[in-house]
Amino acid sequence: MSILMIANWKATPDSLKVAIKNISLISKISSPGVSKIICAPFVFVPLVKQRSLIMGAQDVSVFSEGAHTGEVTAKMLFSLGVKYVILGHSERRKMGEDREIIKEKISRALSAGLAPVVCVGEKERDSDGEFFGFLREELHSLFKGVPKKNLSKIVIAYEPIWAISTENKGAIDPHILRETLVFIRKIMHDVVGNKEASKIKIIYGGSVDHRNAKEIIKEGGAEGFLVGKASQTPALFEKLLKSIR
Ligand code: PGA
């Protein structure tokens, strides 16, 4: 089973020239056993069409089509060759996206044939374990009612908000990650049933780099990564990919 390496470029790079250069460099990195999914900003998405790379996007419109100026729909992305789309990222939630909107976007993505990479994660880890309750609620409200046939397409990105590199707190301890992923898996069993839940991939995001990636897989039990900062510079991304060989 290949490891999912989902690069979240966020709002970078800021020029076409650099995007072309970075994609060319990244496409040459050999990474056996790893699926390299590049979620570039919309305007650069078509450039990712390279044999060794998989196209991703960072968001999708809540609308299916029509009079919605500025929107990019799931069907448009699918027609370009996009396979994955990040949904519910905490940086989009900060701009006002709520669970209802995210749920709607999951459904748009799935009906167009895209695999949603759905971000869930607590703001902070309180010592009373209240974040477990938060995670349970998130998973129930985002995934209840998703048609069974679509569940195997879903990727859950457990991304605790406090662990994102901009917070400067570093990645999660791999042993704590393991406990949390077991918890997520158990909740998903309750939400969608055992057989279906086992088909859903669960990856980790938050300050992933070449120093911690191997442990996140080995000790933490993640099936892949959602990577921001360490994916935005080809040299750092190469180091990260080599560290998990
Ligand atoms: P980071 O970002 O790897 O820079 O922590 C991850 C993300 O926000 O998806």
Tally of helical runs: 9
Ions and ligands: 2-phosphoglycolic acid
Can you list the strand order of the major beta sheet? 1-2-3-4-5-6-7-8
How many E-type strands? Answer: 8
Name the helicity range.
25-40%
Poorly predicted regions are none
| SSE string | EHEEHEHHEHEHHEHEH
Structural class, judged by helices and strands? alpha/beta
Strand content: 15-25%
Shape estimate: globular
Give a quick account of the main beta sheet: strands, pairing sense, barrel closure: 8 strands, parallel, barrel
Mean pLDDT: 97
Structure description:
The protein is α/β, with parallel strands linked by helices. It has helices at residues 16-27, 74-80, 90-93, 99-112, 130-143, 174-192, 194-197, 213-218, 234-243; strands spanning 3-8, 34-39, 54-57, 84-87, 115-120, 155-158, 201-205, 224-227. It has an 8-stranded parallel barrel. β5, α5 (130-143) and β6 form a beta-alpha-beta unit. α4 (99-112) packs across α5 (130-143) and α5 crosses α6 (174-192). The longest helix is centred in the last third of the chain and has 19 residues, at 174-192. The chain is globular, with a radius of gyration of 17 Å. The two termini are 14 Å apart. Bound molecules: 2-phosphoglycolic acid.
Q: How would the blueprint of this fold be written?
A:
Elements lengths: L2 E6 L7 H12 L6 E6 L14 E4 L16 H7 L3 E4 L2 H4 L5 H14 L2 E6 L9 H14 L11 E4 L15 H19 L1 H4 L3 E5 L7 H6 L5 E4 L6 H10 L2
Parallel strand pairs: 1-2, 1-8, 2-3, 3-4, 4-5, 5-6, 6-7, 7-8
The protein binds 2-phosphoglycolic acid (PGA).
The site of 2-phosphoglycolic acid has 13 residues, from strand 8.
